[in-house]
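Q: Can I see a sequence and its folded structure?
A: Here is a first one.
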Amino acid sequence: MTEVKRNTVRTLIADAMPKIGRFEAFILLAHILDKPKEYLIAHDDDELSDTTVMTFDMFVSMRLDGMPVPYLTGHQDFFGRYFAVDPNVLIPRPDTEVLIEQALMVTPERPKILDMGTGSGCIAITMAKECPGSRVTATDFSEGALNIAKTNAQTLEANIDFRLGSWWTPIKESEKFDLILSNPPYIRPNDEHLPALHHEPQTALTDGVDGLSCLHEIAAHAIEHLDTGGWLLVEHGWDQAEAVAELFRAYGLAAVRSVKDYGGNDRVTMGRRP
C-alpha cells in the first residue's frame, strides 16, 4: 500500500527549500501559522491543515514571481521596530538605518524634524521614538503611503504631523526645522537593478529622469527651512555622493560630508545651515 504523504512543517520546508531557501520558507510558514520560527523547529513533525498548505504554496509561488517577503508577511523590521508595509510603500532597508544613526548624532534636545517622502513612516516614527520631546512632521504625495504611515504611527504610539503633498508644497514658508531628512527616489530609470524591484512603488524608487532631480528639489530649498545650525540629511545612490555634496554646497550648506552604508558604499550625505 502506498503511504500517503503527511504535510508537516518538516516536509513543507523541505519542499520549498530548493525554490526559495530555508530562511524564507521558515519566515512565510511562521507568518501563516502566527508562530515564532522556534516553534516550527520544535514542532517540525506537526501535521498541517490543507488550508495552511494551500496558503503556503500560494506564498511560495508569489515569492518565485518576485513578490518581496515583507509584502507577503505585511511587515518589515527597521531600527528594532516592526513597520506595516504594502505595495503602496517602499520596503524599509538597513541602508536607511545609517541615515537615522547619523541624524541622531546631530539631533539637539526637543528637535523639530521634517521627513520628506515618508512612505511607511519608518524615518519619522523612528526619530520620534528615539528623540523624546521632538516635534515631527512627515510628508508624502501618496495618500496610500500616508495611510500606511498613519497606521504605523498609531501602532507604535508616535505623534506625527502627517501632510499630503509633494516635497515642499505642504510646508509653510515660515516653518523651520532642526533636522530635515529624506530617502527620496534616486535610482536612474535605466538602472539595471530597477526591473527586479517592479513590485515596489516605482515613484518611490526612481524620479524617471536622472536620479538626482528629487535630491535637487530638496536641497534647493532646505536652507530656507533650516534653523541656524540645522542639518539636512539625505539617502542617495552609491555613486551619487559627489553630485549630492556639490548640490548641498551650491545651495549654501556647510560642513558637508558623506557617510558609508554597511556595505561600504557612500549612502548618506549631510550638510548644516551655517
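Q: Show me another, different protein.
A: A second, unrelated one:
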Amino acid sequence: MADCQYNIGVFDSGFGGLSILKEIRTLLPQYSYMYLGDNARAPYGTRSFETVYRYTLEAVTKLFEMNCNLVIIACNTASAKALRNIQQCDLQQFGNDKRVLGIIRPCTEIANTFTQNNNLGIVATKGTVTSKSYEIEIKKFFPEITITSHACPMWVPIVENGEYNSDGADYFVKKELDALLHENPNIDALLLGCTHYPLLLQKIRKHLPEHIRIIQQGEIVAHSLQAYLQKHSALESTLKRTNEIQFFTTDSRESFNAIGSHFLGQEISSQQITL
C-alpha cells in the first residue's frame, strides 16, 4: 500500500463550499481535509470566465502545494467556468497523481430523480446560469427534462454578510422565486445550484409552494466522492486518515471563523494565506 500522506482539498470562492464539506465529512469522516475560501475575491458569480479560471487555478495550485492530491471545487461558478480547462489544459503539469473534481456533474447525472413531471428549476449565480453548464450536462443524460434556470444575484451577498435570517432576505428570496415560477409555473423540483443557498433554505421553503421538492447538492456530492474513491483505490490508498480539517482563507480570519461556523455547524479556526 502507498504511504498515506495526502489531504483532500476543498475549494470555494467563499463560505459556501463549507456546506459541501459538511456533508462530505458526515459520510467520509476518516480523511484529512483542507478547506480554502478565497473570501478576499468573493463572490465569483459576476466575474468573467477568464478571471474565474485564473482565480480557481491559483487556488487549486495552492492546495496541491499544501499536500493535497485530490481537490474538490465546491463552487458552482468555478465548476462551471474553470473545471474543464483545468482538467484538460493544466492538470498534467502537476503530475499524474493529481485530480480535480467539480460539483455540477454529480447532480446532473441523477437529475431525472429530482422531478416527476420533467420540469426542473435551478437557482444559481449569474455566472453559473450564463455558463449553461447545468442545461448542457442534464440534456446529455435526460433530453426530456425542461430546465428553467434563474440567476439570484443578491442571495450570495445576503449569506456572506450573515443576513440570511433577516426580513431583507425574505424580500429577495420571494422576488426571485416568484420570477422563476412566473417563467415556468410547472416546476415540481428546485435545485439549489449554489453552495451558499442552503443557509437560505428556511426562507426558500417559506416562499415556495409546498409541492415543489428542494434539492441540495451536499449529500449528492458526498456520495459521488465516496463512489469515486471506491473506483480509484490507488488514489484512495494515498489519503491520510487523521479525521482532521484545516481551514484557510484569503481574507479576515475572524470573519471567516464567525460566518463559516454557521455553514459547518461547529466552531472553526482558520489561517490567513495569500494565493
